[in-house]
Amino acid sequence: MQKPLPRPVATVLATALAGSLAACSFEPPLRVPQAPADKTPYTAGISPKETVAPGGPSGHAQKIAYGKELHEEWWKLFHSKALDELIATGLKNSPTIAQAQAQLKQAEATARANASIFYPQVTGNLQANRSKASAAAFGGSSGFHYSLITGSVGVSYYPDIFGVNRLVYRNSEALVKYQQWELEAARLTLTGNIVTTAVSEAATEGQIRATRAIVAQERQLLELTENQYKAGAVDYLSVVTQRSQLASELATLPPLKQQLAVYRHELAILVGAFPADARRQPFTLTELQLPEELPVSLPSQLLKQRPDIRAALSQMKAANAVIGEARAQFYPTVQLTAAFGDTASHPALFFNPVSSIWSLVGAVSQPIFEGGKLEAQKAEAHAAYDAVYAAYRSTVLNAFDQVANALRAVEHDAQTLAAQRAALQAAAEALRLAQASYRAGASDYLTLLTAEVQYDNAKIAEITARSQRYQDTAALLVALGGGWWNKADRKSTPVNTQGKPHPSAGALPVTQVKP
Question: Which stretch is the leader sequence (predicted)?
Answer without folding.
Answer: 1-25
